[in-house]
Amino acid sequence: MGAATPVVELKQITKRFPGIVANDSISLKLHKGEIHALLGENGAGKSTLMNIVFGLYQPDEGSIEVNGKPVIIDSPNKAIELGIGMVHQHFKLVQPFTVTENIVLGMEPKKMGIQLDYKTSVAKIQKLSDQYGLKVNPHAKIQDISVGMQQRVEILKTLYRGADILIFDEPTAVLTPQEINDLMGIMKRLVEEGKSIILITHKLKEIMQISDNVTIIRRGKVIDTVKTSETNPNELAEKMVGRSVSFKVDKKPASPKQNVLEVQNLTMKNKEGVSVLNGLNLNVRAGEILGIAGVDGNGQSELIEAITGLCQVDSGIIMLNGKDITNKSPRFITESGVSHIPEDRHKHGLVLDFSMSENMVLETYYKPPYNKAGFLSKKEIDKQAKRLIEAFDVRTPSIETKARSLSGGNQQKAIIAREIDKNPDLLIAAQPTRGLDVGAIEFVQKQLVAQRDQGKAVLLISFELDEIMNVSDRIAVIYEGQIVGEVLPEETNDQELGLMMAGSKKSGGKA
Amino acid sequence: MDWMTTIGQLINTTLVFSTALIFAALGGIFSERSGVINIGIEGFMTFGAFAAGVASFYAEDAGMGAASPYIGILAALVMGGIASLIHAVASITFKADQVISGVVINFLAAGSTLYMVKLLFEGAGETTLLKEGLAKVPIPLLSDIPIIGEGLFNNYITTYLAIILVLVVFYVLYKTSFGLRLRAVGEHPSAADTVGVKVLRMRYIGVIVSGVLAALGGATVTLTTTNTFSHNTISGQGFIAIAAMIFGKWNPLGAFGAAVFFGFSQAIGNYFQLFAWSKEIPQEFIYMLPYVLTVIVLVAAVGRSSAPASLGEPYDPGKR
Amino acid sequence: MMSKLFKIFSVNSLLVPLVAVVMGLIVGAIIMLIGGYDPLLAYGSLFKTVFGNVYDFGETIREITPLIMTGLAVAFAFRAGLFNIGAEGQYIVGMTAATAVGIKLSGLPIVVHALVAIIAGGLAGGIWAGITGYLKAKRGVNEVIISIMLNWTALYFSNYIVRNFLLEKGQQRSEEIKDTASISIGWLSTAFDNARMHWGTIIAILAAVFFFIYMWKSKQGYELRAVGHNGHAAQYAGMSVKKNIVKAMFISGVFAGLGGAFQVLGVFHYQAIFTGSPGIGFDGIAVALIGLNHPFGILLSASLFGILTYGSAGMSFGAEVPPEIIRIVIGSIIFFIAAQGIVRWVLKPFYLKRKKEKVL
């Protein structure tokens, strides 16, 4: 097997972007019937490499061989022709189109040369879906089906185009543990049917579970390629990060005190009139970190928006330190002692086209000393910005630099600096480590624990089970707009949490 | 004049006014469905009206008689296509803001058409009056039916064409693979790109078809209503066509309905003086009607949700 | 869409608009050549017209003034993330309100009457724009479409008011405003050989200064810009996005309305029944774009615009070029500014050269 021609071979691929070498002489072999994992941190160069394989970028140096023949992949079309398909992390699906329309787009069966032959299309897709056990409904609109199903549509898109080599880009980021299991099953089936798979991920568990070989890249360079059966998670992690990492966050046991946040029977409908919060109850005490575990889309964002006043709830009560803050304005809530590290730092956390200086007073600009009789004091604002940027080691060329030009990690540090500096009673951290590298993740998690140790209440929302398990003092599981159970991290495990996250209710509610 | 004739004529006039709006609104749909905002419709109509006025005049001059208006239409189509390239190059290739690019089109259209008119007609502010515009073509038998015979079946060939085109555009958008691709490009260009649909090419086609159809709309104004081109031949029709497109939720059938409604509100102005009770209403209010109604309907009914999801966003494959 | 605009209009140096202006003039020259005219003679007579004598120079200033106001109007909304294509309608209602106050109010002392008329014009424009802002904020309706519709509504509505309440008998225009409402500056007009000089010009320059201070030095300006760049972040920070949208549109409309008021009170002293839209508001879009949506840039671009427009009359005398050529020039300038890629492409050889020099 080892001597057989690889289905894809990358030879010394180098790709430079202004100021950075994204891929530095990367080589990789994928054999038929193999699941080959590509492991690396955010920004290590995985996506760039795969975009090269898929024809979206051109390498500056190096070559690609498919089935032993050198090829130039200058467009996705060419990649498709060569039998390479990509399951994108952010699905490339047209929401108002049906499953069938999405799959055949670009390669439509036709009648009379121009008319879309919808019937034939449906039949073809049904057949493919049955063959690989994907169970999709060809007539459903994308906007009406679950995320897991949408991913299967993405897989079908590649199969419909006759792909033999499938690239999965961080495919589990948006799935429940159960959906992840299903996906693993599908991937195995694909390999059994003769396909080959490249799996891009930074999750070690998945790699250990399903891959045959692992290539680890760091800062654009291949560190090593190993057989999965001959390695272990710690070794992989060390190679990925470049130093030994402890997955445990150092922290003392919590000593929770009085309730800071109490949420009772919260219900809320979204703009489309769908119930997104259904009688949600929870509390967070001073000196503890409550982690909310759950799959994306079960009401986490809405819960935060409700607490912070960005959305109006239909019924229920939100109390902060015994004061009713239900449906109050964001400013009232902020002034009552709530800080919020938002889920989407580009959408909510920063005005990207403002300077760092302007961003550091985003919630306090109207107060003295920044505001003097309706005019802003640049001197005072700059002073504050400098102080925070130094205290939290935000790497920026200057305080006049636009927030846009900072790295994700530094943007996040700046937000955290601003929010913590407000000295809140309740700190809400939504996905605070998303898209950050390991160093930044450690920093952020340490800050959360430090806040807890100072007696603040911390509400942590994360889709990463590991983060929930490691950082929280108490875990509440959210499912379809309700807290379906509460557990302590030391008394539970991934399986149990996974089941709860998927809605099989556990006798919840202690503490 | 008996009331049956009046109603028949009112329907007829409504359709005459609607025709230009239908063409232009269909044009707008092509562009915006592909993801490119087109507030330059007014300008494309101006270019079309100008080309029709000039080319028909020269055709008449050359003794082409009844064929002259068709030369005018042909010229308008070509002119619209060429002008639309400006919008396409700026907003698609150079990723300029699409609204601003549309403003540019309107600017250039107003300036250059009048410039050329003065150039060609020795300083006059309008083209020489055409001896014959398009003639009405009654459809045998059908045109003898009371009321609707006069109303529907005794009209310009462009009006019949506009109605047929509504169905054709509907078919193209929703039943052909081309339509599927065009809509995909407007909704989610990077999805289309990754399955090999040429995003920029589709958008070019959308914008060019848009320019051609809007110019055709402009040409019908010259050839059926004014018989000459001057600075106010096209004054606001393009914007009403955009309103019709939005009313119609970017769907050809809906846009058709809205265009006919606007045509009606224009046409009824002409008939207002006929009735004693309506003389009391100031004419300005009649002129205002379509615009005010548009605002009311936009506020009351239409959300933004039906607009193509990527409308207004230049496609940049590097940013994904 | 808006964020892109900001990128274009704040990051870049003055080089792009300058090159765009030059390229626009070149396009105009080429079109004149094709038409068989002499572009040098044409541009020459354009400038000779403007700077040839004090009367025409004064009249050019008169031409520039309303352009400053509508340019500021468009730019102000731009900074708050809104495209106010409705400056035209706001300008018209501003004219009409000022005319009505100028004619119907009587017995007020000289400065007071003028001030009341000016304020009426500004308020009318502000309210007219405020409608758009309100509908955008409350109902989420696209401000561009609403503005376009309100432009035409304003045109016919103003005609209705003038025809039915303010008409000078037998004329297609209103009566003259009372002398007490006039903002003309008699001695200055005399100095400029009877060109129509008025206080509006001074106020326009002050308005630009106000724009600058308000937008970049005040708390409210900070809020407006935050809303303009990122409404979600503004809401997160406790600002009311809706209130700021209405406020931005209102102030924007005040600028345009004042422009209309100046035109009536300082220049015509009456309002005509319009046969078509006057276009000053639409020109404001061009002025704002060429002026990079910055108040001081707008002073420059309004001057350029006014010079070109006023001078174009001289072109048709001096070189027999149809004055519409200027619309083509201006359209081309905006085109080159909006599609900056083209300008950059033209500039590329220069950049490369500079880079090489640096390396050496």
UniProtKB/TrEMBL annotation, chain A:
Keywords: ATP-binding, Nucleotide-binding
Domain called ABC transporter: residue spans: 8-244, 261-505
UniProt KW Nucleotide-binding keyword: yes
A family per Pfam: ABC_tran
The organism's place on the tree of life at top rank: Bacteria
Signal peptide per UniProt: none
Molecular-function GO term, any one: ATP binding
Cross-referenced PANTHER family: CARBOHYDRATE TRANSPORT ATP-BINDING PROTEIN MG119-RELATED, GUANOSINE IMPORT ATP-BINDING PROTEIN NUPO
Protein name from the UniProt record: Heme ABC transporter ATP-binding protein
The species this protein was found in: Paenibacillus cookii
TrEMBL record, chain B:
Statement: the UniProt record of this protein carries the keyword Membrane: yes
Transmembrane stretches, start-end: 6-29, 36-58, 70-92, 99-121, 156-174, 204-223, 285-303
Lipid bilayer topology: Multi-pass membrane protein
Record has Glycoprotein as a keyword: no
Principal localisation: membrane
Listed Pfam families: BPD_transp_2 (PF02653)
Signal peptide: none
InterPro entries reported in the protein's UniProt record: ABC_transp_permease (IPR001851)
UniProt keyword list: Cell membrane, Membrane, Transmembrane, Transmembrane helix
Protein location: Cell membrane
Protein name: ABC transporter permease
Automatic annotation (TrEMBL), chain C:
UniProt xrefs under CDD domains: TM_PBP1_transp_TpRbsC_like (cd06580)
KW Membrane (keyword) present: yes
Membrane topology: Multi-pass membrane protein
Stretches that traverse the bilayer: 12-34, 64-87, 107-131, 143-162, 197-216, 245-266, 299-319, 325-347
Chief location bin: membrane
Keyword match Membrane: yes
Keywords: Cell membrane, Membrane, Transmembrane, Transmembrane helix
InterPro entries per the UniProt record, alphabetical: ABC_transp_permease
Lineage: superkingdom: Bacteria
Subcellular location, record wording: Cell membrane
PANTHER family, A to Z: ABC TRANSPORTER, PERMEASE PROTEIN, GUANOSINE ABC TRANSPORTER PERMEASE PROTEIN NUPP
Record-given protein name: ABC transporter permease
